[in-house]
Amino acid sequence: MSSPADSTVTNPSTPPWWNEAVFYQIYPRSFADSNGDGIGDLGGIEDKLGYLELLGVDALWLSPVMRSPMADHGYDVSDPRDIDPLFGDITAMDSLIRAAHERDIKITMDLVPNHTSDQHEWFQAALDSAPGSPERSRYIFRDGKGDNGTEPPNNWPSIFGGPAWTRISDADGKPEQWYLHIFAKEQPDLNWDNPEVFEDLAKTLRFWLSRGIDGFRIDVAHGMAKPEGLPDHDWDLNELMRNDDDDPRFNNPEVHQIHRGIRKVMNEFPEAMTVGEIWVRDNERFGEYIRPDELHLGFNFRLAETEFAAESVRAAVENSLAAVAEVGGVPTWTLSNHDVEREVTRYGGGQIGTLRARAMALVELALPGAAFIYNGAELGLPNVDLPDDALQDPVWERSGHAERGRDGCRVPLPWEGAAPPFGFTTASSTWLPMPPEWSTLTVEAQLEDVDSMLSLYRSALELRSSRPEISGADIDWYGSPPGCLAFRRRGGLICALNTSDVPISLPAGDVILSSAPLVDGLLPVNTAAWLI
């Protein structure tokens, strides 16, 4: 274990480890099951560290494993300083940290500061206390509008559908105040104007950092702070699971003071980092989150939202680089995560979607900065069209079955064998059903296949870590035919992408990797290549 006393201060002339790191996001429920209950756990992750070392990633990001009633699969935390029994216990986490560090793999955790579970001891105390009490002041309770307070305090909707307010009743069943929940009703928002809230978060940060955790992904990092008076808003453009830059629920200026406080705690552990989930479109406002005294990194989702078209990809790259340039920040890149449709499906599905996902993997991994790979992307997994009765995402119920939610990208990983559960578990079934057609996509099937998606990722990650040409914080663009792009890292690597409908000539250089074989020396459609 490490502690503030034995942490090594980073040499200011040496870039921190996260600047060019490849993070591998693990959705713990769906990675590997070690106890036979059909749900992935910490023991399963530790069992597969050899695979992750072979893949060549630098760090893991674990989606929530803290104690939770699982109303939103762990993003409703009832005890932020404990492990949920579904995944193991503190001893299992300590063992995973130790084992990962022995393989030179960092471990980062999800942190959920915007809200707690409604089962958190603080919220239970708030329910048992009177309006205006210290217990209620940790959350956002308000009297309702209208006769007898029957209307919500304002017109805010929940990201998951329905109103963002739920009314409680007193011990006698009499309707009482309302509480705010930007997400599900089981996720009451904390009141960050109350100093107790930050004090508790600081305690949580130090608890995990002192156990050897290398950093945190901060959920809804643009949330937390709420505008004075909680004003009504025009929601004509409101969509489930989305927000724009004028949304009063997010991106309020006071949030930056919260991040400065987090950074002060992180500075006690100089080798640890934070990366924020920041759904902010405006580049200047995005950049504010990664100023030197706030977050170390900020998720930019432009690539994950971009169609497979060279012009769009270039625009996303240029935008992402511009968003960090003014504040001297490090860009981040990702093609998918637990909230986003998998890239194979997003790019058209089937063979064409797979070819395009292979090409975009090389684009992502050629870019300067930190890259994030969602578990299963390296296997070329598509989204799964699950039956209605299998869906578990709260969005499904909260939207009145209008939105299917995110379960399709969260199906457990296939490891080996010819039929479900593909070595994921010794149980007969998994928490989300696995499609039989994944038999050709298992780790076992792909490891020895030099043409597989897994082999492509392994080759790209090995080259990224070993070739000096894959370096430099800036890129230069080449002139390219319509539907194509090419850029050069300052270290010398050239990456070319062909999204047109005809093969193209490549820039001068030796090809060291391509997402599909060249044809007569030309780069085929739906293909990318690396050259030096």
UniProtKB/TrEMBL annotation:
Give the residue spans that cross the bilayer.
none
Q: Name one GO molecular function term.
A: hydrolase activity
Q: Which UniProt keywords apply?
A: Hydrolase
Matching SMART domains: Aamy
Highest rank taxon of the organism = Bacteria
Cited InterPro entries: GH, GH13_cat_dom, O16G_dom_2
Query: What sequence ranges are listed for the domain Glycosyl hydrolase family 13 catalytic?
Result: 25-410
* Pfam families, A to Z: Alpha-amylase (PF00128)
Q: Which family does it belong to?
A: Belongs to the glycosyl hydrolase 13 family.
Task: Write down what this protein is called.
Answer: Glycoside hydrolase family 13 protein
